[in-house]
Amino acid sequence: RAGAHPSGAGGRGDRPRPILDMSYSRHFLDFQGSSIPSSMKKLVVTKLSQNFREAVTLRQDSPVPLPGDGDLLVRNRFVGINASDINYSAGRYDASVKPPFDIGFEGAGDVVALGLSASADYTVGQAVAYVKAGSFAEYTVVPAKQAVPLPSVKPEFLTLMVSGATAYISLKELGELSEGKKVLVTAAAGGTGQFAVQLAKKAKCHVIGTCSSDEKGGFLKSIGCDRTINYKTENVESVLRKDYPEGVDVVYESVGGKMFDLALNSLATKGHLIVIGFIAGYQNPTGLQPIKAELLPAKLLKKSASIRGFFLNHYLSEYKMALKHLLKMYEKGDLVCEVDFGDMSPEGKFTGLESVFRAVDYMYMGKNIGKIVVELPHSVNSKL
């Protein structure tokens, strides 16, 4: 490693570890608090399974990774929970990768050490967020190019990294939104649904949101949703047929299964159904929930309609622009970034890596309003 030499790291009493050239050490060590510990907690996928508790192990004493020349070492303060965490733990992202491997898609925290090239753009103590596998850890090495500088470490910023960006880019690239269009958002009070609702409203669309409780319906109304449908108490299909006989122009669909079938049937002529995900199937061994697909070609033809898939990784060229726009909207007060820390969950707020397991369960019970975020508290001069 350029500029690294194996000097004793002092006071650790365990293996010496390479730290970067001491003449630059102000860049590399966190002098505000303790020096960086040599070991940390992190979550590791140790067995492929869509059952998160079976798949994932909390390791207590993993070595803290060292940043290379172009990297930041980030001390994570907030990590985001995503429905696809269980797809990742089941090995559905890359079948060639065998356990053990790191997990967690996104984090936000402080830079505590960095490589020399990275120090051209970042400094110790700076607030950053990132999207990169391995965020379910106390410390994560992030290439400086993949980091996003933040004004401060706030959980609201984290909601934009995956959930906000997914809604922004998919609607912009695939939604063809314009004034007066009718947009149906499924799981509208969830992490990404909340942004689809607000962005469609900003495009002067009429927005219909499905959700599973009256409390969620109240939240949706507060962010501008025109019509909420509680699918536990109302029949979504008949509400749509009665109130929107011409159909809906765009569907932002992340549920799958029966909800997908229903959304497909509700499309207007030339309507678009955007497939963001199908959470209803992720807990199944196949990762899928069956749909009524045999009539699909006929249904699409009859309406000149389309179904479009969206996977964020294929749109990274749009990502920085989308994020800049979303951050600006949030800072101007034009965007609600609802965070759910699990305060209302049975065991209370999601704090510490061990609560990631509960947080995933909470998502799959459909309880969250907004984006589920876990806080990793750090006290100065102590290893957690």
Describe this structure in words.
The protein is α/β, with parallel strands linked by helices and 384 residues long. It is 28% helix and 24% strand. It contains twelve helices and 18 strands. Strands 5, 7, 8, 9, 10, 17 and 18 form a seven-stranded mixed beta sheet that branches. Strands 13-12-11-14-15-16 form a six-stranded parallel beta sheet, with helices on both faces. Strands 4-3-6 form a three-stranded antiparallel beta sheet. Strand 14, helix 8 and strand 15 form a beta-alpha-beta unit. Helix 4 packs across helix 5 and helix 4 packs across helix 11. The N terminus is likely disordered.
Short description:
Helix content is 28%, strand content 24%. It has helices at residues 25-28, 52-55, 85-89, 155-175, 193-202, 214-222, 236-243, 258-265, 279-282, 296-303, 316-331, 356-364, and strands at residues 4-5, 19-20, 39-45, 56-63, 71-80, 101-102, 106-114, 127-131, 139-143, 147-149, 182-185, 206-211, 227-230, 248-253, 267-275, 306-309, 339-340, 371-375.
Structural class: alpha/beta
The value of Rg in angstroms is 22 Å
Task: Identify the overall geometry.
Answer: globular
- What is the H/E order? EEHEHEEHEEEEEHEHEHEHEHEHHEHEHE
Low-confidence spans: 1-12, 21-27, 29-33
Residues in helix, %: 25-40%
**What portion of the residues fall into strands of 2 or more residues?**
15-25%
What is the typical, i.e. mean, pLDDT?
92
Taking the alpha carbons of the first and last residues, their distance comes to: 29 Å
Number of strands: 18
Largest sheet: 7 strands, mixed
Number of helices: 12
Give the helix/strand layout.
Blueprint (H helix, E strand, L loop, with lengths): L3 E2 L13 E2 L4 H4 L10 E7 L6 H4 E8 L7 E10 L4 H5 L11 E2 L3 E9 L12 E5 L7 E5 L3 E3 L5 H21 L6 E4 L7 H10 L3 E6 L2 H9 L4 E4 L5 H8 L4 E6 L4 H8 L1 E9 L3 H4 L13 H8 L2 E4 L6 H16 L7 E2 L15 H9 L6 E5 L9
Parallel strand pairs: 11-12, 11-14, 12-13, 14-15, 15-16, 17-18
Antiparallel strand pairs: 1-2, 3-4, 3-6, 5-7, 5-9, 5-18, 7-8, 8-10
